[in-house]
């Protein structure tokens, strides 16, 4: 197996997503049994997108969430998807090209330093991105800077269970080691998906994420476990 990927290393994480981009959506469906679509619907439900809004999808990957949001901000709105990796963005643009009526744009950029103006967005999402950043606290500060006062944000990701001896944590380890990695091995991407467990281990747990968000300036922050505690949704108000 290739050398382990270091969580939080910007170059290695970018290369990881460039490598898995062609198979990412198919594997995501298989590994979650399609449930990631439900979790993303819950993310959108918290955001409450409206026509005319300007929304941001940080770490947008192949663009599935951005495209759903783009349907909801018509007419007069815009969704901007940003990702550090080029290959997922190519997938996202191909998807968008098949639905040219949608108000969506994709750009390559750094979620820690987007270059966008303060208060640029009415709302924002980040799905499976915060965990991969070099500094989760800095990512939340940039997210807060980008939102207008009162704007909502939703951060969806794996949930790191605070008690590693709990049944929930044990099941998560079983899922990653016995289901995710073997399936990824058959697809020739064992190293890329073995990285998941390491990245979760360094990720702040739910309460810690809430405190980091409040420290970043969010007026409200609540972390809600999903999928029996396997996933988590950080619900934020600027």
Descriptive report:
The protein has one domain (10-237): Rossmann fold (3-Layer(aba) Sandwich). A hairpin with a 4-residue loop joins β6 (220-226) and β7 (231-237). It has 238 residues and is α/β, with parallel strands linked by helices. The protein has a seven-stranded mixed sheet with strand order 3-2-1-4-5-7-6, with helices on both faces. The N and C termini lie far apart (43 Å). α5 packs across α8. The chain has helices spanning 10-32, 36-47, 64-72, 86-97, 136-146, 167-186, 190-201, 206-215, and strands spanning 54-58, 78-83, 104-108, 121-127, 147-158, 220-226, 231-237. The chain contains eight helices and seven strands.
Largest sheet: 7 strands, mixed
* H/E element order: HHEHEHEEHEHHHEE
The CATH class label is Alpha Beta
Determine the fraction of residues in helical runs and give it as a percent range: 40-55%
CATH T-level fold name: Rossmann fold
In CATH, the homologous superfamily goes by the name Vaccinia Virus protein VP39
Give the helix tally: 8
Tell me the span between the first and last alpha carbons.
Answer: 43 Å
Give the CATH architecture.
3-Layer(aba) Sandwich
What's the structural domain tally?
Answer: 1
The secondary-structure class comes to alpha/beta
Q: What integer value in Å does the Rg equal? A: 17 Å
Low-confidence stretches: none
What's the mean pLDDT score?
91
What global shape is seen?
globular
The amount of beta strand, in percent, is: 15-25%
Strand order of the largest sheet: 3-2-1-4-5-7-6
